[in-house]
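Page 47, continued from p. 46.
Same chain as before, 242 aa.
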Amino acid sequence: MKKVLLVVLCLPLYSCDSTHKTTPIRTSKADTNFISRSIDSTGYYAIYIETNRESIYYTQLANFKFDDYDSADIISSYQCLVNEHHLKPAKVDLLDLPREWLPLYAYKKKYYIYKPCEWGLVNRQIINDSLLISWTVGGLSTEILSSIKKISTNSYTVGTKTFYDGKIVETEIHIHVIDTAKTIALWEYLYKDGTNPRYQLFIPKDSAKNYELIVNYCSNKVDELVFDSVNYAEPTKNADNP
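Result:
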């Protein structure tokens, strides 16, 4: 499947956060559920399941505040889209959609949130009344909202426009709430240029502590955890059984 990363070309690139690399790691607690761990000349590495809802990693993942660099990214990319590429912003009604979203992943038949080794892969999303803002490996990606509509009790469409690869890219994101108890939503990205759709599960930020957290602690960059494939054609109704 072709993956499209909607990053504005004139967006200045900054690192969003590096605090995760200096956060203390559990190294010997007997009840820690390690998926993998190793130590070598470059440092200590561990992937483990964090069950403590007061862990600093829950706090970091749920921190959607912008620092000065983030704010500069957003302002610069917004001005680029409006002034250079002549996209017209439209203030839209968010209806009852949550504003801040975290990705949800399946691992061994259970759902988790995830703290990646590379913080740029955290893939958080913010929807406000005029923009969709995403955390990406290239920095913050900004797309202008063209519409938000509620198409059924638990489904919405979010229209966005941005500039990528020398052209205006229009996307219609279908957000389907597939588990109302735990507010799991399937985001279906439909590209109007015919690019293959892509899918991702998300939860509102306020639901983060309903889930255990997989932490990828790394002294230097390593591969991210490979998660289970999810059959998006038949989304689950049970949050404990992907």
